Amino acid sequence: MSQHKEIKKITTHTLQAMKARGEKIAVLTAYDFSMATVLDHAGLDMILVGDSAANVMAGYETTLPITLDHMIYHAQSVVRAVNRAFVLVDLPFGSYQGNPKMALNSAIRIMKESGGHGVKLEGGAEIIDAVKLIISAGIPVMGHLGLMPQSINKFGSYALRAKDEKEAKKLMDDALLLEECGCFALLLEKIPATLAKEVSENLNIPTIGIGAGKYCDGQVLVIHDMLGLNKGFKPRFLRQYADLYQAIEEAAKTYITDVKTNDFPNEAEQY
Ligand code: KIV
Asked: pLDDT tens across 79-118, in order?
């Protein structure tokens, strides 16, 4: 008999069952093979191949420039590393807005070419036809409401969203609509904790929060932010779990010294 223990993969059903039994869902972003290997091994429930790759991997100010081809490249690298976690991939700006057929084609390309397990789109009623069409093709969709970075030019800033009653009501209506249309989960970004609580209590599908407080069914952070690689980025919602910027800088400085003083490589490190 094989000693090999079969790994139970996380599916949309697993995630929904976690909400039903009150178990929180842990999500982080990843964009490459090495990081995704570590995160999957650590036992993360979901890895988001976020379009935040535009910021932390490519150095753009916004998420707008990243393309569908770039997202597929990142998602392929993550999928190759993952044995257990659910891999969710962002549809980038310009690949779905205003055109449900284009949205479906974009989602199909992600699923076919990367092997990811589902896609995420930003928006509510405005993109609902795209959401419905993608779901009708058997592709799991996560909604994304609150602060939507792809609409930064409309919002004008990355400040807290849905503070006033009108925007909070629209967010709740959009959340219910996305659930009704078959989304398997909903990401809530940078909204008041009380609103996120209300949304989470009113939905059967899990909510995943970032800057949306403790009452969401799960949490997500951008990996570079929580590892302290994004120097100087310290919003209130971010808990930093390591200071890799400093660790890497110190390692690089030591290496430079070792090379310049002819300490590296030594006898044991050569052939
Ligand atoms: O692209 C991203 O990283 C996101 C965050 C909200 C987690 O969507």
From this structure: 999 999 999 999 999 999 999 999 999 999 999 999 999 9
User: The domain 12-240: what is its CATH number?
Assistant: 3.20.20.60
How many Å lie between the centroid of ligand 1 and the Cα of residue 130? 20
| Separation of CA 256 and ligand 1 centre (Å) | 35
pLDDT score of 233 more than 80? yes
Does the C-beta of 221 come closer than 6 Å to ligand 1? no
Sign of CA dihedral 182, 187, 189, 193: positive
Which residue bears the tokens 């178990």? 23
Site to probe by mutation for ligand 1, drawn from 25, 28, 62, 90 as the one with most ligand atoms within 8 Å of Cβ, is 90
Q: pTM value?
A: 0.97
